[in-house]
Amino acid sequence: MKVAFFSTKKYDQDFFEKINSDNKHQLTFFETALNVHTASLAQDFEAVCVFVNDDLNKKNLEKLADCGIKLIALRCAGFNNVDLAAAAENNITIVRVPAYSPQAVAEHAVALMLTLNRKTHKAYNRVRENNFSLEKLTGFNIYGKTVGVIGTGIIGICFAKIMLGFGCKVLAYDIKPADELKDLSVNYVAIDELLQESDIISLHCPLNEQTHHLMNTDAFNKMKKGAMLINTGRGALIDTASVVEALKQEKLGYLGIDVYEQESGLFFNDLSETVNKDDDFLRLMSFPNVLITGHQGFFTKEALDQIAQVTLKNLTEFESGNELENEVKA
Ligand code: NAD
Questions:
Q1: Which of 295, 317, 319, 325 is catalytic?
Q2: What does CATH list as the number for 102-292?
Q3: What residue stretches are annotated with the D-isomer specific 2-hydroxyacid dehydrogenase NAD-binding domain (predicted)?
């Protein structure tokens, strides 16, 4: 198929070209994100391939349909950026990569948790400046703590298992509990109990109408004072204004995020020579107990390889008219 890739970096191109070495599909890589101004680049292509911050709203989908696009291949798991009803109205099929190394994201959540706790990012800088003082680097034992996992799909299950390995008591909340975790002494509880009892909470549910701003003022008020919140799910699971307030009031003890509500246009770009005008983001960065990474949970060799393999398989299935294993429907 002739496929236009949007929001691509060199590493995307490298991995896709390696897996597509037989040139089964004709791949064209655009660096630009897909938006109302760039959708017309898809003219003369049969499919587009997009990432987490490409906006597949009704208007852009209509433009893509006008260009003749029949398939949109998401090279990610989440599909909160797609208006599925509008895609169906425009006869555009959506496929995704439902699972690519869930360990990559779960392990990144653990990295955020450990860094925030043991302050290794601060220790690294101190030692490089010949400052060997331990003042204010005190952490706490993860062993024996209560960890709450919200969303126990493939990533949440990996994360919960790692936490069990650390010797934690694991609580979980999900609208569809996983039998695998119940068998491993994970306790499914109501969300309020999880918020009240957990020392550390990690978010692994999708972003949708039910989970938008799941972590709001009400939720922060229910949490233990000084608890840690980790988010590798999607930015808008957390209400940014509420989390800033919870940090200011010292209710929330630590915040580790790999995703941010307004990350589109910010993350994945080198903006080191530009003025950051996002005051909420700057406020978050001003707290000593906040750690932010730029949506890199997925970013391992294994995951990039898997993303390229599954995406190309999705294209081949569509082209040959076979049943689509990874189709997303409204
Ligand atoms: P998944 O579909 O396997 O699991 C999601 C789980 O959330 C399911 O068990 C589902 O029942 C549950 N859920 C749905 N609605 C819920 C609700 N209202 N309350 C509680 N639980 C609910 O998905 P996954 O592969 O484990 O991924 C989880 C999320 O992680 C994705 O949706 C995506 O947003 C995010 N993600 C982030 C990165 C990254 O690089 N940071 C990479 C991949 C995925």
A1: 295
A2: 3.40.50.720
A3: 110-297
